Structures are given as C-alpha cells and as structure tokens.
Amino acid sequence: MQLYAPTSTTPKRKAFRAPPLASIDGLRLGILENGKLNAEEMLNEVAQLFVQRNGCTIRTLASKRNASAPAPGNTLVKIAPEVDFLLTGLGD
Amino acid sequence: MAAVAPRIHEAPDDLLAAIDYCYEQGWTDGLPVVPPEVARVKAMLAADSRPAETVIAHHPATGLDLSLHAAAVNAVMAGCLPEYFPVLVASFEAMDRPEFNFHGSTASTGGSAPLIVVSGPYADEIGMNSDVNLFGPGNRANSTIGRAVRLILRNVFQMIPGISDKSTQGNPGKYSFCIAERARGNPWPLLCQAQGYAAGTSSVTVFAGGGFCNVENHGGNTPEQILGSVADAMANYGCITLGQSVVILAPEHMSIVGGAGWTREQAQNFLFSQAKRSIEGMEGVGKYRDREYDAQHGDGAHALAEKGFVHRGLSPDDILITMGGGDAGGHSCFIPSWSRGRGSIMQHAAVRRS
To answer: What is the structure's pLDDT at B44?
Structure first.
C-alpha cells in the first residue's frame, strides 16, 4: 500500500546562529521584554548583572505586544544598530 | 522556497499493519488513523479545484507551509469525507491570519485548542451536528474535521506534544473541537450573516478555546437570570482576562433570551457589563495588572467598562454568542480564550465551494 507522508513539503529552512561575541565587556545591551507579568522586572535585574560585572551599558528596552509571537521585524531592525547584544526571555 | 514533491511511503498492504505503520511513523494523535492511501488523498483533493501545491497556511516559527495536498493527506487520516474538505481549508485560511497566532496558541502552556464553528447551509449539506450532543461524540463531520485540524498542527507544522506544544494540561478539545451553529429555531441572524457574507455563503469561525465551562440554569426564566449565570462563569477568577469569549446558548436558554425579544447585541452588552470583577478582588487573587486595566479603561474605552472593575474582554464585540445543542436541558456553555490576554483574536473565512 502506498501512503502519502502527512508532513509539510516545504524544504527545511536553513538557520544560522550569529557568530559568538569574543567578549561582552563594555558592550551595549538591549532588552526585549515579552509583556508577561514580571518580564520587564526580571530582565532588568539580569541586565544589571551585566552592567555590574561586565561594564555593559543598557541602551534600549523594547517590548513585544504578543508574548507568543516572534518579535516583529521592524522592532528588530530598529534595535539592531543600537546594541551589540540583546537580552530576552520569559517572565511570569 | 519551492516545495518538494510529496513523499510516498511503501506500507504493508494489510490494513491493520498499515495502521500500525502510521503509529510507528509518529503520525497520529494517539488514536488510530486511516492510512493516507494515494487514491483516497486524490479523491480528497478533488474537493478543491486549485492546484494541490497551493499554500493555505504558513507557520511563522518554522517556515513550514500547509499545502492543499498536505491538508488532504491529514484529512484522510482523520477520517474526513471529501465534502468536509472545504470546511477544513477555510479553517486554516482563517487560522493563517497573524491575529489568530496559531503558533502561539498551540505552543503555549495555556493548552488551548482551535474551536471551529461552522455557520450556514453547508453545515447541513455535509451532515454536521448542531443539535443534541453538540460537542460530541457521535457525528463524523464534526469529529473528523476537528481531528484533521489537530493532525495538521502536529504533522505539518510539527507542533509535537511535549516538544513544541508545551500545554501544561491541554484540554479534550485538542483531539477535536468542531461544531455547527444551530439554524433551526435560532431567533438571531446566523453568524455567517452577521459576518457579512453573501446569502448562501457559509462561514467558519476559529477561536483558540481554553476549555469548556458548562453553564447550568434550570430555574431562571428571564434573560437577566440566564445571562447572569453565563456572565458569572465568564468572570470566575480562574477565567477572567481581557480575552475574547464564545458562548453557545442552549435552545432552552435561547427561548428565554430571544423569546423576550433580546437581540444578540443586547445580550453581548449585558454579558460584557456583568462579567466583571472589582480591582480589589483581582488584587486579592494576585491577578490585577495596571497595564491590563488601562487597556480596558484608557483612551477608546467602551462606554460599558465600569471604573473600578476589570471586565472580561475589551468590548461587547469580544463575545461571540449563538445557539447550539439539543432541545432539552438548561445547559449552555462558555468557552474561555487561550490564557491571559489577547494573544489570539478569533477569525472567520468563507467556505469555498469548488
């Protein structure tokens, strides 16, 4: 019996990781919070550790209106030139 | 990116062995599936005149597409007949809109399931159930269309329980959650009419439903008593959020509400104004947030949003109400939205006849 596979026929997307930073000392840090309860507070606490330990500078705080959707492209495009790395994560 | 040709598997000719083969491939929802044999898939595809490679939905998180062909394969597996296929296609055309956010509502711990509400003459044409035992079991169209939605989320978009579907508890609707709106005896315009579709056009409404809450009231005999019970269910501390709501009134309850001359809009206004909790009460259970209160009471706030209270939803339009179920019984239902807010907004689409 011949069966069709029930999976997508879209070719697998090739995903690439950004090259790792050689050092984070003194870099510009951005925060992307997802709007969940305590997300902003939690990420700010974590960001302060980078400030204290690595001399990072917090340059921007961006918010997602929808925690479960990918960050809008225009948000990332706006943030990218302003920061060297971005801190994000869930908060509840 | 160009699609690759659908892959064919050589499975045992013995039907039971072929069912086992589907299990071994990880293609099922835990229940046996109909093996998607080539001829059956082609018969399913004949229900849509467009090319089989036509893409009807796209998964933003993985880049995976849903083609008519892949939808047809899963429809066969779920047990659908070809005449059900237009409803399944319309469901994904509606779910594909970014506002519905089918990735988030499926992946989330919230455990929602896409509720499919079919409105208009096509529901009767394909033998859907809008009557007794509305949410099942017992009707092939309702059961298998809802099941096909789940199989597509699993097989095509790879929303795998425990891996990319992280529902804390899930809900039984994640096996199948599909109903027809009851037209017989319904005093209100059908949803497809209210949504503005041309006469004779049926529609599918999709809603990320977080569960099912039975609303029992056999003693009330006024619209305020019946809808007051519904509003109380909508505002329970476990459910109240800024999210949307679906309310399916049982015919007995509708005869009281509609029989008193209440329109859908009146019922929506009543439910919105009554489904509320005080700020103090919300604080008492740890669910109060300034940001959410401001969204409801700031610029553009609805006139029925009462200061000092958190209502369910942002406006009466956030409450879909219609009728369904058997003639006997004071059992309506309220279906809450996925999780805490407005991460998914209900959508609708026309059922396309080929």
So the answer is: 98
Sequence letter at residue B81: L
pLDDT at A91: 66
Q: Are residues B23 and B93 in the same domain?
A: yes
**Does B78 contact chain A (CB < 8 Å)?**
no
Task: Give the ipTM of the model, two decimals please.
Answer: 0.91
Helix (H) or strand (E) holding B174: none
Number of domains in chain B: 2
The C-alpha atoms of residue B149 and residue B137 are separated, in whole angstroms, by 17
Which of A3, A10, A11 faces B36 most closely, judged by CB atoms? A3
In terms of domains, do B280 and B152 share one? no
Boundaries of every domain in chain A: 28-88
Average pLDDT across chain A, whole number: 89
Whether residue A8 and residue B35 make contact (CB cut-off 8 A), yes or no, is no
Segment B69-93 shows an average pLDDT of 98
How are beta strands A28-33 and A57-63 bridged, if at all? parallel
Q: Is residue B3 part of a domain?
A: no
pLDDT averaged over chain B?
Answer: 96
* Residue B3 pLDDT greater than 90, yes or no: no
Give contacts of B 11-70 with A, CB under 8 A: 11-13, 15, 18, 21-22, 25, 27, 35-38, 41, 53, 60-67, 69-70
Same domain, B200 and B266: no
Gap between the Cα atoms of B108 and B47, Å rounded: 33
CB atoms within 10 A of CB B196: 9
Q: Tokens 């259970």 label which residue?
A: B285
- Please check whether residue B85 is in contact with residue B44, taking contact to mean a CB–CB distance below 8 angstroms: yes
Interface A-B: count of C-beta contacts within 8 A: 105
Residue B201 sits in the same domain as residue B222 = no
Q: Tell me which chain A residues have a C-beta less than 8 angstroms from the C-beta of B104.
A: 66-69
- Let me know whether B176 and B61 are in one domain: yes
**Residue B2 belongs to a domain:** no
Q: How confident is the model at residue B2 (pLDDT cuts 50, 70, 90)?
A: low
Q: Which residues of B touch A8 (CB under 8 A)?
A: 64-67, 70, 156-158
> Are residues B269 and B190 part of one domain?
no
Is B197 in the same domain as B314? no
Minimal Cα–Cα distance from A87 to chain B, Å? 19
Q: With beta carbons under 8 A apart, name residues in chain A contacting B37.
A: 1-3
